[in-house]
Amino acid sequence: MTGSHELWLRAAACSMVLATVVICVSAQTRPAPQFRTGVTLVELEVTVIDGRGLPVAGLTKTDFSVFENGSPRTVVNAIEVGSPGTQTAGTELLQQSSTAPAESRIVTVILDDAQIPANPRVAQQAKAIARTVIQSLDASDNAALVFTRRTGQSADFTTNHAKLIETVNGFVPAPSTGSAPTSGAAIMYEIRTSLNALESVVRYIGTMSGRRKAIFYVSTGVALPRQGSQAFNEVIQAMRRVFDAAQAQNVMIYGLDPGGLSTGPETRIAGSSTPGVSASGGLTSRHEFLLMLAENTGGRSIVDRNNPEKAVVALLTEHSHYYQVAYESSLVGAERPRKIEVRINRRGAAARFRSMNTPWQP
Asked: pLDDT per residue over 313-350, tens digit each?
């Protein structure tokens, strides 16, 4: 019995040692716990203006509320970039609170000679807008001037803004015959010319270094063909490519219409002879194009004004001053569609923003 008892004790001891080894090995090889929160950060560029249209400075993350598909999301950070001037909402002096330095801008002025009619008043207005944009730039801003039709006479990026002004002064709207295209094929050619130029410029400046990029698109706008037609679907797809490229390349587009007020005898200047669209209907669709262009890229469009160049300084100021707002999204992956709303928790202040993750619907 004694021998059997000792044998049993040895076996039990071995079993305990083996169990201990197994437990130790298991503890060492067990993978570390991984926590899947289902949250990703999304960054927005938000411009905040007051009731007078002036940029608002000195905001922090607590001043921003972000809603994604109707649900409130956590704002992680809000970094102010650039200087809006000397005043904020109200009468107090600006207290500079930027935590990111102001940057030189990359600005392209597009004179849409494929759409601007051969009308002396409108042509002069288009040149006045372009000159005002260029003359209002900072000396360090890198700028270019692009014609949609006569592309060979465009001026490449430079800080020599006087050279760009010379190019503007030589602008002549197309067609040079002085008559607008009347056939459907000719009209579609002009539309493709304008949209292809827009997309090409967006993609090109997207490759340039520098964060804040803008296009000032001087045009009476593209006349949308009759809805439901094959031409309409083609134009919508081309517009979608422009919007997608602008969002992906972080480019804002500002539309400036040189056509003036859409009342009186000048209405037809910005009108459309596209089959199935009347002059007034074409005018509306052209304005709608400019508005959609801005809304889907974070910019603004100035239409139905006799002196649209007066809005240029305000647009450039907006473009220079903004907030980088990061929030926690529950929709992982940029391909997931999301409807984003940004509210400013200050009376009289409103937000304009763009997001690489905001889908566009025609």
From this structure: 878 877 778 888 999 987 765 455 567 889 999 988 88
Q: What is the DSSP string of 58-119?
A: ---GGGEEEEETTEEE-EEEEEEES---SB-SSSSBP----SB-----EEEEEE-TTTS-S-
- Do residues 302 and 336 share a domain? no
- Model pTM score: 0.69
CA–CA distance, 252 with 202 (Å, rounded to integer): 9
Tokens in use for 73?
């999301």
β-pairing, 142-147 vs 155-158, is antiparallel
Cis omega before residue 175 (within 30°)? Answer: yes
**CB burial string 200-222: b at 16+ within 10 A, e below:** ebbbebeeeeeebbbbbbbbbbb
How far is the C-alpha of 247 from the C-alpha of 42, rounded, in Å? 13
Q: Do 155 and 53 lie in a common domain?
A: no
